[in-house]
């Protein structure tokens, strides 16, 4: 069983997934997957608004990054961000998003971007700064993958601006809003089975 060494007198923190972790992570992912689908429906309007300068569309993408950041902040186990983002993408695809199977590939890439940030802190820190960095990581991952998949014909300065705008969106929408959502859920008591509902840094 994977555990971390804790100082004497403190409770050992387990990184092994429990049944409740799987259930709650799945509920989060399915709920956010529905949001993903609705967010995708709004993209046609956004693409029309930004038609004259497409990189601005990057400011909208943070809504597709929430599952990974929120799931990671709540579950606090290795793989949570990746699991939630991929499952949310699968739900969005099943509901009929216009990108089909590609949305699952994108979900994996975006979830990995957030996951790597949580790994960087060894799954030990869960404050606002880490949440913002996880949103940033997911945003950068999304922008790079979309520059390869969809924006390859853009000029390099447009591609770089898309990375910048997607990063800002990831920080604000996925990072900040997910952290606020976690705090709000913790205050209701529904996260009492999780460290996110018990520790002072929520």
Tell me what the structure shows:
By secondary structure, the chain is mainly alpha-helical. The chain has one domain. The protein has seven helices and no strands. It has helices spanning 19-41, 43-49, 66-75, 80-95, 102-120, 128-149, 156-188. α3 crosses α4 (80-95). The chain is globular.
Short description:
This protein has 202 residues and is mainly α.
Write the layout of secondary structure elements.
Blueprint: H1 19-41, H2 43-49, H3 66-75, H4 80-95, H5 102-120, H6 128-149, H7 156-188
Helix pairs in contact: 1-3, 1-4, 3-4, 3-5, 3-6, 3-7, 4-5, 5-6, 6-7
Our count of domains comes out at 1
Query: Whole-number average pLDDT?
Result: 91
Beta fraction: under 5%
Question: Helices and strands, in N-to-C order?
Answer: HHHHHHH
Instruction: Write down the Rg.
Output: 17 Å
Q: Estimate the global geometry from the Cα principal axes.
A: globular
Main sheet attributes: strand count, strand direction, barrel closure: none
Kindly state the number of beta strands: 0
Number of helices: 7
Distance between the termini: 26 Å
Q: What is the helical fraction, as a range of percent?
A: 55-70%
**Protein structure class:** mainly alpha
Which ranges are low-confidence, i.e. pLDDT below 50, for 5 or more consecutive residues? 1-11
